[in-house]
Fold this sequence. Notes:
The protein has 256 residues and is an alpha/beta fold. Helices cover 36% and strands 23% of the residues. It has helices at residues 54-61, 85-92, 108-116, 122-126, 132-144, 160-173, 190-203, 216-222, 240-245, 247-254, and strands at 16-25, 28-38, 43-47, 69-74, 78-79, 93-96, 178-182, 208-212, 226-230, 233-238. The structure holds adenosine-5'-diphosphate and magnesium ion. Adenosine-5'-diphosphate (ADP) binds next to helix 1.
Amino acid sequence: xxxxxxxxxxxRDTLLYLxxxxxxxxxxxxxxxxxxxxxVGEMRAIIGPNGAGKTTMMDVVTGKTRPDSGDVVFNGGTDxxxxxxxxxxxxxxxxxxxxxxxxxxxxxxxxLELALAGGRGVFASLFFRSTPAQRARIxxxxxxxxxxxxxxxxxxxLSHGQRQWLEIGMLLAQDPQLLLVDEPVAGxxxxxxxxxxVLLKEINKSHTVxxxxxxxxxxxxLDCPVTxxxxxxxxxxxxLADVQRNKQVxxxxxxx
Length: 256
Ligand SMILES: Nc1ncnc2c1ncn2[C@@H]1O[C@H](COP(=O)(O)OP(=O)(O)O)[C@@H](O)[C@H]1O
Ligand SMILES: [Mg+2]
């Protein structure tokens, strides 16, 4: 469901809309009047050198970091700068961090069940009983993340790549409208990386996805519009081939 990057729309026509967003850390501008948006159904890859502000952008969207200025609007009208992390997650923005949040001593299936119970607190979730509809949802997620055959295995026994997929599955179980994924293929084998692209494309059939990633082979497999961040703002947008041809982008990457 890749959509071309169009001229800047109104906030109300977007799922996620950032306009003029700035964030400073001790005077250093991690985001410098960043403007960026995605529409419903889109998959977008975000690339850019280390320190470009990619993770900070996700922090701003999820409420972890408050912008000094600018608009951050979800679903055409909700001002995210007013809300805390829990409220933003409840609105339907799921984020996959690099640090794993999988419970190693539980099975793959139980991890997904716990994710469904999410928000009830650890104690309440121990007593969570899934409904038939929820069990069907978990089965569907297991298929999507290619772990149906591993449902009864302990999460701690999975490969690195499988653990990353389980984490993506735990987000999917909660059926977020927008999925933010930061460097999902770091540390994966080539074959796991390839499978992750397939998995995200499958997820994108029913969810809007924003992926930050360095791995260009992976970004190419995603086959979606690319935004290049540099020094806290958008340097270029277009297809991967477009941005790789862009002189400024080439300079930024070669100049390092
Ligand atoms: N909490 C923080 N305190 C101070 N500086 C930070 C903080 N978070 C990020 N930065 C700085 O902001 C810049 C952008 O960081 P980041 O968003 O993590 O970049 P990227 O994810 O593109 O590599 C970097 O120079 C980083 O050192
Ligand atoms: Mg980062």
